[in-house]
Specification:
single chain, about 675 residues, alpha+beta, 23-stranded mixed beta sheet, about 20% helix, elongated
Length: about 675
């Protein structure tokens, strides 16, 4: 920034020197002589060919007028800068009192063609021209304050035009109808300085600025207005960090700043902004985001004091898509350019420190003071896509709405979000909590209703090797944090969950008997209800909420499959709660009731190939060989029947325990494992 300011000052000072020369020559020899001298010696004066159409000076009134000044490019033919007329009024008598008092300056029809190619501007030769005449050694800085006062009044640029072209970025900014008004500007005095600027952009938009400063204490006031600014004008300047192929939209801003130039970080800023009709796209990703409107009303921002007082944030009609890709990239990483190396960033930081743009002394951070008076998100559509799975997953959340009132870093806050899920499901989120000390208190309630399980099939295939073919899912989660202690109450409610056939082309990430668990969990109305309580310490470095939920849910599934007796209709249990098929030692075969129980047990193994049945026959001691033969025969019948039912031999084992006189009932103790 300092470099650009220095360049601008050099160019302005160079042109001012030429104009001063016109005044001096005009005063001493007349306007015609001044005109002829500049036209003949332009390259000596400025390093460029120049032409003046006319010049007039009235020594008695202090009036100077220059008509038709043109400064050419290095080729001597192409326009670099010029104006139609310059009219200056100076009070010569005040020079006696060491005061340069300019009554008025009117510059009409200013026309500047500014061009940049890399680090070189089209006025570089002017700078080089003056550098050739400068000495290599710098003179000691004069620290004695000047007694001269420069007082400029009623300065105007009328109907100006500035064209800026960045060759490498292929960017062009056309600014026309440029009007600058500076009623008062004083150097070395105590009078206030103020200025106003208006201009229009060729590609759309009008800019207005007003600034005032008190030289006594460097206090300034600045207001900026921008209407109808076309966002596409900034696209060439963000392509270095983002692969933006198209950027549509318009921006309107009303902003003001007040403070001291001696402490800009403590200046107070106020902003009202409206952004509308935004469309951001990438040539590979397509449309990344669309935005109907964004309205922002900032009452006060003081960066140095960390104060952010925002009256209103309203976002309407936002459409976004976030995708995960198999090469570990995502929409954001593909959109951002990854060419800036860390060492170059560090080198740039060192350069900025050397040039005095970065303060090396650390500034003590102030506590954040944030207030959001009104936050409203309406008509938001967000699509999440995951291409890292065997089957592509795409989940669209539509009509998302979020409202919050008087959110601040002081005290507790509330917010509510509503959204529509695929296939007509609904999501409701209610939040209450403390921002500044979030571990002290948080309450989050999530309610999902009517989500079709088939929409989640790609993840079921990836993790368990089989898709959902039917089912509707509802989920309620109530989580609270008090003094870093988390307590979560999650409840899963599923109607008619049905899994399809196992995919032979997919190796599942997890081996859990989900199909068997659903079979056990479903009641007679084909409903499944699962409580999933979680707890933890958020201060723990190993804390991960989603891992806690998955671990709890996984343990619950294992428990359900390994102790399914109470969930299977018609199943008896022993004293330990295990499934039990009671037999009569004097019978050689199974009864119809016993076959029914065997069939129910077999269905568990048939549900999932990872389920293994262990059938252990417990008996009392006997001296009857017939009873022993009955047990052996039943075991053979049991084995044959399980195989006929479709249970693989590796999925079951039939064993006989040593006779025990304490056994009250003889029969098969059935346990499951996986």
């Amino acid at each position: 920034m300092k470099k650009l300011v220095r360049i601008a000052l050099i160019v302005v000072a160079s042109l001012a020197a030429v104009l001063l020369l016109l005044v001096v020559f005009g005063t001493l020899f007349g306007g015609c002589a001044a005109k002829n001298y500049v036209n003949s010696h332009g390259e000596e004066l400025l390093g460029r060919r120049m032409n003046v159409e006319g010049a007039g000076v009235n020594l008695f009134t202090g009036h100077v007028k220059v008509d038709g000044l043109t400064v050419y490019e290095d080729d001597g033919e192409t326009l670099f800068a010029g104006f139609e007329s310059l009219d200056v009024g100076v009070s010569l008598l005040r020079l006696i009192g060491k005061t340069v008092y300019v009554r008025h300056v009117t510059l009409t029809g200013l026309d500047v063609e500014l061009q940049q190619d890399g680090n070189r501007f089209n006025f570089a030769s002017i700078i080089e021209h003056f550098q050739q005449d400068s000495t290599e050694t710098e003179e000691p800085e004069d620290t004695v304050p000047s007694s001269w006062v420069v007082s400029l009044h009623d300065m105007q640029i009328v109907r100006g035009k500035l064209n800026y072209t960045d060759v490498q970025r292929q960017s062009h900014w056309g600014m026309n109808d440029l009007n600058l008004t500076v009623p008062d500007f004083t150097i070395g005095g105590s009078e206030n300085t103020d200025a106003g600027l208006t201009l229009s952009f060729d590609d759309g938009g009008q800019l207005s600025m007003r600034a005032a400063m008190n030289p006594a204490d460097n206090h300034f006031d600045l207001t900026v207005g921008l209407e109808g600014f076309a966002l596409d004008q900034v696209r060439p300047y963000i392509v270095n960090v983002a692969n933006v192929d198209r950027l549509h939209g318009h921006l309107a801003v009303e902003a003001s700043a007040s403070g001291s130039l001696d402490s800009l970080m403590n200046a107070s800023f106020k902003v009202k902004a409206n952004v509308g009709g935004v469309e951001l796209s990438d040539k590979d990703l397509g449309t990344v985001a669309k935005l109907k409107s964004l309205r922002l009303d900032v009452e006060q921002i003081v960066p140095g004091k960390n104060i952010y007082n925002i009256n209103k944030v309203e976002i309407d009609g936002l459409q976004m898509k976030y995708e995960l890709f198999s090469d570990s990239s995502n929409t954001l990483s593909r959109l951002l350019v990854q060419e800036v190396a860390a060492d170059s960033v560090a080198g740039d930081e060192e350069r900025r420190k050397d040039e005095g743009e970065v303060e090396e002394s650390p500034v003590k951070a102030q506590p954040l003071r944030l207030r959001l008076g009104h936050v409203a998100l309406t008509d938001i559509d967000f699509t999440f896509a995951d291409h890292t799975l065997p089957d592509d997953f795409e989940f669209a959340v539509t009509d998302l709405r979020l409202t919050a009132e008087n959110v601040s870093t002081a005290g507790r806050n509330n917010a509510r979000m509503l959204a529509t899920l695929p296939s007509g499901g609904k999501a409701i989120v209610d939040w209450e909590g403390d921002i500044s000390n979030w571990k002290q208190f948080q309450k989050l309630r999530l309610n999902i209703k009517g989500l079709h399980l088939t929409d989640l099939s790609p993840y079921m295939v990836a993790y368990f090797g089989m898709p959902f073919s039917d089912g509707v899912f509802s989920f309620t989660s109530m989580n609270t944090i008090n003094n870093s202690k988390l307590k979560g109450d999650n409840r899963i409610d599923i109607f008619k969950p049905t899994l399809g056939e196992k995919r032979s082309d997919v190796k599942p990430k997890l081996k859990l008997p989900v199909k068997a668990a659903l079979y056990v969990l479903k009641d007679k109305d084909e409903k499944v209800f699962l409580p999933v309580p979680v707890s933890g310490d958020v201060d723990s470095p190993k804390f991960n909420y989603f891992k806690l939920v998955w671990k709890t849910l996984g343990n619950l599934i294992v428990k359900v499959v390994t102790t399914p007796s109470r969930a299977i209709e018609g199943m008896k249990v022993d004293d330990n709660g295990n499934m039990f098929i009671e037999v009569d030692p004097d019978e050689r075969d199974f009864t119809s009731e016993q076959f029914y129980q065997i069939d129910k047990v077999a269905e568990l193994a048939k549900m999932d190939e990872n389920v293994v049945l262990e059938l252990n026959l417990v008996t009392r001691p006997t001296k009857s060989s017939k009873v022993e033969e009955n047990h052996e025969r039943r075991n053979m019948i049991l084995k044959r029947h399980l195989i006929e039912l479709g249970v693989q031999e590796r999925q079951f084992s039939i064993t006989v325990s040593e006779p025990d006189k304490d056994v009250k009932r003889e029969g098969y103790v059935v346990t499951t494992k996986f």
